[in-house]
């Protein structure tokens, strides 16, 4: 397979895998272990369980799709700076999940908060966004450092 196609699969696959991975962590930590919230809080218990089930199903599909794309890309060590592209893409995807989910669900739609009912609920929501932004910035830095070195190698 050509290098450009493999690189594209690593870019897309790592983003999708990171997006799904942070979604899975959100579901496991906040929905199940801490039981702070469900996807849709303003329903009865069966509605909350169904909304969480749909969320977990979508996250699982996202993880599988990311895995398939990375499998199609092949071994990232066969590409110059392939590991940096992989790790950076996973962090960018994860950060994007937190930012998108936080802005849409916590602030725009207000279907749940990170820790609803807590007097510091806004602090939890903003911290969730800050973690997403931090992951995104670190991921971009890692990917760009990989690209810069890749460009200097080919120059």
From TrEMBL:
Record key words, sorted: Membrane, Transmembrane, Transmembrane helix
Keyword flag Transmembrane helix: yes
Keyword check for Membrane: yes
TM regions (residue ranges): 12-34, 54-73, 85-109, 121-142
UniProt xrefs under Pfam families: DUF2243 (PF10002)
Protein name (database record): DUF2243 domain-containing protein
Higher taxonomy: Bacteria, Bacillati, Bacillota, Bacilli, Bacillales
């Amino acid at each position: 397979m050509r290098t450009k196609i493999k690189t594209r699969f690593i870019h897309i696959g790592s983003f999708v895998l990171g997006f799904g991975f942070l979604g899975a962590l959100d579901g496991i930590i906040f929905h199940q272990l801490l039981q702070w919230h469900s996807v849709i809080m303003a329903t009865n218990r069966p509605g909350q369980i169904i909304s969480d089930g749909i969320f977990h199903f979508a996250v699982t599909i996202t993880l599988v799709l990311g895995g398939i794309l990375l499998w199609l890309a092949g071994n990232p060590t066969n590409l110059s700076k392939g590991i940096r592209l992989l790790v950076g893409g996973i962090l960018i995807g994860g950060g994007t999940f937190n930012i998108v989910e936080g802005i849409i669900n916590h602030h725009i739609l207000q279907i749940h908060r990170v820790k609803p009912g807590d007097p510091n609920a806004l602090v939890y929501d903003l911290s969730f966004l800050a973690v997403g932004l931090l992951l995104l910035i670190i991921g971009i830095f890692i990917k760009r450092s990989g690209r810069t070195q890749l460009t200097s190698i080919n120059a």
